[in-house]
Automatic annotation (TrEMBL):
Residue intervals of the Acetyl-coenzyme A synthetase N-terminal domain: 3-57
Gene Ontology MF annotations: propionate-CoA ligase activity
Organism: Roseovarius spongiae
UniProt protein name: Propionyl-CoA synthetase
Family from the record: Belongs to the ATP-dependent AMP-binding enzyme family.
A GO cellular component annotation in the UniProt record: intracellular organelle lumen
PROSITE patterns noted in UniProt: AMP_BINDING (PS00455)
InterPro entries noted in UniProt: ACAS_N, AMP-bd_C, AMP-bd_C_sf, AMP-binding_CS, AMP-dep_synth/lig_dom, ANL_N_sf
AMP-binding enzyme C-terminal domain segment(s): 510-588
Entries under CDD domains matching the protein: PrpE (cd05967)
Pfam families, A to Z: ACAS_N, AMP-binding, AMP-binding_C
UniProt-listed PANTHER family: ACYL-COA SYNTHETASE, ACYL-COA SYNTHETASE SHORT-CHAIN FAMILY MEMBER 3, MITOCHONDRIAL
Ranges of residues in domain AMP-dependent synthetase/ligase: 64-445
Length: 629
């Protein structure tokens, strides 16, 4: 069957479709049905099944003869090391870690925060939690203490597992002081922390609270896999929303297993045993789904890459890893390819490596611009597939089902809706738009298995953020159109979320930080076009009356403040001082207009603007030399 038949078979009988996919998973108790809709518009899947994620990702492969197959390849140009871990070794390591966590009191349902760099132990920590039915929440290493503290308070972890440091090309980032700062700031205190000491910068352990990763496992009884209900959360992953408070996306165990397993062959076109590589970070959803869970669930070897696309040591790193480890499918963000293209526009580096193993390049996380796709197609001479999804869904909403049927690539479109997703374009009043018309992208409920059933501790926010605008639909926050061939085009976000180097960031959060500066009366942050990172944040600040310090001093402090409070990942490097913010007469900040001015694009003067002259002032300020902080 091709794509159209499969999509139709799902649409005509979703229950049968998902029950069939569920057969690929090892259940402790099979679910009696797929969809549970008693609580509509809140839906759940496979609720009465009992299952364990770690068993499906690790133990069952050992039982089925894959024990000697490499499960994880750690390739770390920043530490100059490589390591391979087989499924059998992974089982031993994860069972031991889980046993040690259990001995310290971690049980099913307890939360555990993981704050680690790209080392295999990060995956082992995730799997050990899943083994016990404990709910992990991984926090990206590029976030600062305050952001870690917010997450500690929201999910109230019993334990935190952290690395002593992360390694960025230009510096070692000590995680321990960030962790200590976060615990000090947070109202909730974890019972204990486990610290993985890295030789590049070991940390001093806090007596009575911190345990050493290795020594705390000594003598611990290995833990078995604890079966959990199908709707039990395997993890919480915080992502940016419109306000400063991050949203805790819940990932339900059973649907996650079933859906991710389906994607590996049908979308990424790999068979069990193949090597699969997603160059992202475990702190993001791509890292959860496609560095850790999906490849392991499907019996693939996954690559954990600790490095950057360029500079570690050069723009040939990706190609070296693909060729050396025999990678069949490679997934990264367009920004990473742009970085490589900038350093090596002719693809000279690529010629040094035999890439015959590679079948296709997959791009997601941000808009894939035509130049980047065309360049990658040309230098690689392989298909390049854009696909669109979000933290909330955990896997492809719209993509090219290359393992099922490779559909023609139309540059600018991530292709078509995957089974499970009925994607619609709606007008502001919720009426469907015609073919080719721009509107809000919404998905008819229920969302498929594995997608978020709600937000952690925030069902009201879940309803408001996703369900209330268009009753009967999930609001994606993206705007776009569908053409006459059913191809979707993503045009923009409908909220104040921006996308910097494939990282989803909240301008609202940056505004909260800027507003806390004593000299700032009012501020706005907008996303402006950035050649490398897709977008970068630009801050407009209005000073409080009577402040007469040099503007450069204040903007530099603002830049430092965002870095300190949110972290380097915010990449907030530009702020300008303006007299007033451009607003509508009703007080709404005209962010889109500011972004257009900054991008040097044509813009229409908004009819409702309060004070048109302010736009000229902004234009001048942006083009003044030395305006950046
Ligand atoms: N721990 C600590 N700091 C981190 C970090 C981590 N895990 N990850 C990033 N940072 C820091 C960086 O060192 C940088 O700090 P700086 O301002 O001192 O230079 C800052 O956060 C921004 O990092 P990054 O977004 O990685 O930008 P960069 O300029 O270092 O590199 C790219 C640019 C394009 C090479 C890089 O963004 C990249 O590889 N992107 C791929 C995107 C990706 O994987 N997205 C995931 C979704 S698929
Ligand atoms: P995240 O939750 O961090 O994965 O970010 C999801 C958001 O990134 C989406 O809602 C889009 O705005 C954007 N995004 C992800 N993939 C794509 C894509 N292929 N094309 C355009 N935008 C994308």
């Amino acid at each position: 069957m091709g794509y159209a038949e499969i999509y139709e078979s799902w649409k005509s009988d979703p229950e049968a479709f998902w029950m069939k996919q569920a057969e690929a998973i090892d259940w402790d108790r099979k679910p009696s049905k797929a969809l549970f809709d008693d609580n509509a518009p809140l839906y759940e899947w496979f609720v009465d099944g009992m299952v364990n994620t770690c068993h499906n990702a690790v133990d069952r492969h050992v039982e089925n003869g894959r024990g000697d197959q490499v499960a994880i390849i750690h390739d770390s140009p920043v530490t100059n090391s490589k390591q391979k871990i087989t499924f059998a070794e992974l089982q031993t390591r994860v069972a031991s870690l889980a046993g040690a966590l259990r001995a310290q009191g971690v049980e099913k349902g307890d939360r555990v925060i993981i704050y680690m760099p790209m080392v295999p132990e990060a995956l082992e920590a995730m799997l050990a939690c899943a083994r016990l039915g404990a709910i992990h929440s991984v926090v990206f290493g590029g976030f600062a203490s305050s952001e870690l503290a917010v997450r500690i308070d929201d999910c109230a972890p019993k334990a935190i597992i952290a690395g002593s440091c992360g390694i960025e090309p230009a510096r070692t980032v000590p995680y321990k002081p960030l962790l200590d700062g976060a615990i000090e700031q947070a109202r909730h205190k974890p019972d204990f922390c486990v610290i993985l000491q890295r030789e590049q910068q070991p940390a001093e352990l806090t007596e009575g609270r911190d345990l050493d990763w290795h020594s705390f496992q000594e003598g611990a009884q290995p833990a078995e896999c604890v079966p959990v209900e199908g709707n039990h959360p395997v993890y919480i992953l915080y992502t940016s929303g419109t306000t400063g408070a991050p949203k805790g996306v819940i990932r339900p165990t059973a649907g996650h297993l079933v859906a991710l397993n389906w994607t590996m062959k049908n979308i990424y076109n790999v068979d069990p045993g193949d090597v699969y590589w997603a160059a992202s970070d475990v702190g993001w959803v791509v890292g959860h789904s496609y560095i850790c869970y999906a490849p392991l669930i499907h019996g693939n070897t996954t690559v954990v890459f600790e490095g950057k696309p360029v500079g570690t040591p050069d723009a040939g790193t990706f190609w070296r890893v693909i060729s050396e480890h025999n990678v069949r499918s490679f997934f990264t963000a367009p920004t990473a390819i742009r970085a490589v293209k900038r350093e090596d526009p002719k693809g000279e580096m690529l010629k040094k490596y035999d890439l015959s193993c590679l079948r296709a390049l997959y791009l997601a996380g941000e808009r894939a611009d035509p130049d980047t796709i065309e360049w990658a197609q040309k230098v690689l001479d392989k298909p390049v597939y854009d696909h669109w999804w979000q933290t909330e869904t955990g896997y492809t909403i719209v993509g090219n089902p290359a393992g099922l049927e490779a559909l023609p690539v139309r540059i600018g479109s991530p292709t078509v809706a995957m089974p499970g997703y009925d994607v619609q374009i709606l007008g502001e009043d919720g009426t469907p738009k015609k073919t080719g018309e721009l509107g809000a992208i919404a998905i008819r409920l229920p969302l498929p298995p594995g997608t978020l059933p709600s937000l952690w501790n925030a069902e009201d926010r879940f309803r408001k953020a996703y369900l209330d605008t268009f009753p009967g639909y999930y609001e994606t926050g993206d705007a776009g159109l569908i053409d006459e061939n059913g191809y979707l085009y993503i045009m923009a976000r409908t909220d104040d979320v921006i996308n910097v180097a494939g990282h989803r960031l909240s301008t609202g959060l940056m505004e909260e930080v800027l507003a806390s500066h004593p000299d700032v009366a009012e501020c706005a942050v907008v996303g402006v076009a950035d050649e490398l990172k897709g977008q970068s944040p630009l801050g407009l600040i209005c000073l409080s009356k009577g402040v007469e310090r040099p503007h450069e001093e204040i903007t530099a402090e603002c830049v430092a403040l965002v870095r300190e409070r949110i972290g380097p990942v915010a990449a907030f490097k530009r702020a300008i001082v303006v007299e007033r913010l451009p607003k509508t007469r009703s007080g709404k900040i005209l962010r889109a207009t500011v972004a257009k001015i900054a991008d040097g694009e044509e813009f229409r003067m908004p009819a409702t603007i309060d004070d048109p002259a302010i736009l000229d002032e902004i234009k001048d300020a942006l083009h003044e030399p030395g305006h950046a902080g």
